[in-house]
Fold this protein.
Amino acid sequence: EVHVVESGGGSVQAGGSLRLSCAASFSTDRVYCMAWFRQPPGKGREGVGVIDRHGASKVIDSVKGRFTISQDKAKNNLYLQMNNLKPEDTATYYCAAGQKEDGAWGDCRFITNWGQGTQVTVSS
């Protein structure tokens, strides 16, 4: 089994910043891709951004220019730098890892069990 643990969430005012971290229980060299998801209150989970083993990354349009996804392979960590936060970014954030699957979201088939997530609350 592969597990991840998210951390770094908190409560901030609109315009503020947070940096989320995801610690993997496995070597990230064993997976093709890692990603961040979020689930707003009362809504479904959505992908936020994905990064592959070559370092190529992309994020969804609603966070483009504000969020940056990165990884530290030596530490088996994934990060999400979130700047200029908006109230609509309020959600529980989760990370996941997976293998390449063309046509899937982020070209990634996720294989990790969902962790507890980390809560991000942005007030106006």
Remarks:
- The mean pLDDT is 94.
- DSSP finds no helices and eleven strands in the chain.
- Residues 18 and 93 are 12 Å apart (CA to CA).
